[in-house]
Amino acid sequence: MTTHPTVLEVTERIRVRSKPLRSAYLQQLAEIRDRDRGSDRMGCANVAHAVAAIPANDKFKVVSERAPNIGVVTAYNDMLSAHAPYQHYPDIIKNEARKLGATAQVAGGVPAMCDGVTQGTPGMELSLFSRDIIAMSTAVALTHDMFDAALLLGVCDKIVPGLLIGSLHFGHLPTVFVPAGPMPSGMSNTAKSKVREQAAQGLVGRKGLLEAEMAAYHGQGTCTFYGTANSNQMLLEAMGLHVPGSAFIQPADSMREALTREAVRTVLGRAAAQAYDCPPIGVMVDERAIVNAMAALLATGGSTNHLIHWVAVARAAGILIDWDDFSTLSDVIPLLARVYPNGVADVNEFQAAGGPGFVIGELVEAGLMHADVMTVRAGGIREFGGIPELADAGTAKLRWNAAAPLANEAITRPVAKPFSATGGLKLLSGNLGRSVIKVSSVPDDRHVIEAPARVFDSQFALQKAFTAGELDRDVVCVVRWQGPQANGMPELHKLTPPLSVLQGKGFRVALVTDGRMSGASGKIPAAIHLSPEAAAGGPLGKVRDGDLIRLDAVAGTLAVLLPEDEWAARENAVQPESQRDADGRGLGRELFAGMRRNALTAEKGACTWL
User: Fold this and answer.
1) Model confidence over 284-326: pLDDT tens digits?
2) pLDDT per residue over 8-58, tens digit each?
3) What span, in angstroms and rounded, lies between the C-alpha atoms of 500 and 498?
């Protein structure tokens, strides 16, 4: 199938824009990859330190037999349900490596916080920047420089982008990501959200709300809604960085260990039918792979966080992308999946309806993804159109079957009959700056909202106004001082229930913010990631209560409806003292002051390392 002209156009403009940076990056990789192996190149004392703690047989393999040594970077902790399964993965990896005449060492661990735990708390102000801490921690782990390949163990929101950014700074290493899978389905996401809305109205108390939440989040594995964590897994599949089809196999499934062992074989180039060595990750992740990830995000209505994270990921590989690239692709990428909050199904139902394999297969065959990319496997991206299963219940051998949707097409659909002809994300621009909106789950009659503004300096102020009944009207809620430089750009999930209640009462409501909402904005029109942010002098600081704001997701505009000269003359508000950097004290926030000062805009990936 010929690649779609728009996909080619976007890819080419990214290639041209990135050429100087990408060329320098690849040159650096070539120079590093041409060096001798670590144990041959490094001093004797260095090597002795590196192998001091490993078994004698492994020491012999590394030093004398010059066997491949795999560096494992793990985000294991048992605070994150999605990462708790990783506890025993290193033992499985080491065992499989030894079978193959190789060795493996846990190179290091990276921090991994749970946004579900910190949501609405001061800890959430560390969340976005934890991505860059994870990237740096990955670099610390791999900088021991004794490794011939790497396996990265991580799943959730900032962890995967951080691991990917870090590994791309060691882009000379063949690298495979090893997922752990989603938890089994509990209380449905729709039912959980209903209880949250009832709690916001005072109809359900803390006991009832806690029971509902614990019925939804109840075991090991990722949360089952299609937020950032599960979008991460979709994008890694689309970039060919997993063992094919491994994203959404549950932790307790007997296939999980087989897939982990297959990851070892894959990174060593020893997988069944592997016709070539696993390529260096920095070579694999080129502009075509980045575009494939963008296409997969749009086709599934994935997390808006990736309009920040994948900009940073691409930059780590010497590739420059922006929101115009996402917007142009969104005009031609059809919506092929409806997974909560973009539908009622959870990720387990998505997997049963063909999952990532079906979506990737459809996009490739329709020319909406590049088919000629390198992946960790010899079969290329088409191999990621299958779903794995154990070939024999008594063995660990795997086989892949072609993915297909359910007959009722309520969760996944083919390109020929999509849920929508365009993707789930839209770029908004106007006199308030540039913003994005996730429209895939917003009702069609809510794509255009025009109403007076009510301005808040924090999410808590909005919640207080809602509780007092001050928002029972058509209103555009403006929440500012929520960008990277202001307070670390926390997600504002806690605003979804009250705004949903207002919309449910028939009011025309919307949210405009320089903060984040991830995939949780759901059915509420939410213009998020507004850049430049208010703390950096962005025009959001000019908005006053009562200003008429028009959010138009059809035309792609976001503006305060004031005469141009009046708007230009208006002064920006000053960030309240309670919202300034001085307020970032306690619970570790003061340690991140330098990152807040150095952070780039959301559209530039909110990077702190450039």
Assistant:
1) 999 999 999 999 999 999 999 999 999 999 999 999 999 999 9
2) 999 999 999 999 999 999 999 999 998 999 999 999 999 999 999 999 999
3) 5
134, HSE (Cβ side, Cα atoms, 13 Å): 31
Question: Number of helices (H) and strands (E), helices first, in the chain?
Answer: 23, 14
Q: Are 533 and 484 in contact (CB under 8 A)?
A: yes
Query: Of 230, 149, 188, 124, which is closest to residue 517 (Cα–Cα)?
Result: 124
User: H or E element: which one contains 328?
Assistant: helix 323-330
CA 526 to chain CA centroid, Å, is 19
**Residue 495 and residue 462: Cα distance in Å, rounded?**
8
Q: How far apart are CA 146 and CA 62, in angstroms?
A: 9
Q: Are strands 103-109 and 149-153 parallel, antiparallel or unpaired?
A: unpaired
Distance CA 360, CA 369 (A): 8
What average pLDDT does the chain have?
93
- According to the annotation, is 156 in a ligand binding site? yes
Cα–Cα nearest to 282, from 186, 174, 369, 417: 174
Q: What is the DSSP string of 309-320?
A: HHHHHHHHTT--
Determine the Cα–Cα distance for residues 217 and 84; give it in Å rounded to an integer: 14
pTM of the model: 0.95
Side-chain-side CA neighbours of 125 within 13 Å: the count stands at: 26
pLDDT at position 582: 45
Looking at the DSSP assignment, which residues form a beta bridge with residue 434? 429, 531
What would the pLDDT profile of 139-156 be if each residue is shown by its tens digit?
999 999 999 999 999 999
Annotated binding-site residue? 477:
no
E strands present in 307-431: 386-390, 398-402, 425-430
Q: Reduced to 3 states, what is the DSSP secondary structure of residue 438? A: strand
Q: With bands split at pLDDT 50, 70 and 90, how would you rate the model's confidence at 579?
A: low
**Alpha helices for 248-319 (secondary structure H):** 255-267, 281-284, 287-300, 306-316
**How far, CA to CA in Å, does 191 sit from each of 229, 349, 350, 491?**
21, 16, 18, 22
Q: For residue 381, what are the contacts with CB-CB under 8 A and spacing of at least 6?
A: 238, 240, 292, 360, 364, 369, 370, 371, 373, 375
Helix ranges restricted to H, 353-436 = 355-365
Task: Express as a percent the part of the chain with pLDDT over 70.
Answer: 97
**Looking at residue 276, what is its pLDDT?**
64
Q: Closest Cα to residue 592, out of 489, 479, 491?
A: 489
Higher pLDDT, 53 or 518: 53
In order of their start, the domains of the chain are: 5-35+68-184+219-402 (no CATH), 185-218 (no CATH), 425-604 (3.50.30.80)
Q: What is d(CA 586, CA 597) in angstroms, rounded to the nearest whole number?
A: 18
Contact 596, 487 (CB under 8 A): yes
**SS percent in the chain: helix, strand, coil, step 5:** 45, 15, 40
